[in-house]
Amino acid sequence: MITGGVVTVFVNDMDRAAQFYTESLGLKLAVRFGNHWASIEAGGGMIIGLHPASPESPAGKKGSVVIGLALDEPIQQAVEKLTKRGVKFRGPVFEDNASWIVYFEDPDGNEFYLNELKAEYKKYQPGAAA
Fold this sequence. Notes:
Helix content: 10-25%
Strand content: 35-45%
Oligomer: single chain
Strand order of the largest sheet: 1-4-3-2
Radius of gyration: 15 Å
């Protein structure tokens, strides 16, 4: 039945957004159709679709969607790399029961977080072998 999906992120400037997702975050641009759509491969089968904002679907509306990105390295290393690429984090890395988390936003204010699962929870990470 359902075999995958796309998280659609509404953006104000396709060039700026594509540059942020590929250069700052280091993700792969799969396909781009001018200023109408871009598919960004985020790993583990996750696709982030960039789409121009509209009055019905504004960019950066706080709280409506938060996208979590899994890591294949310690969170502190990822934060250091991404900070050097211009990503601005909202506060420090914090710990919850199962993981370490840190929040940031894309250039339109859409909310994201990095997530490093603790060892005993790694089997639940997106893309992990079942």
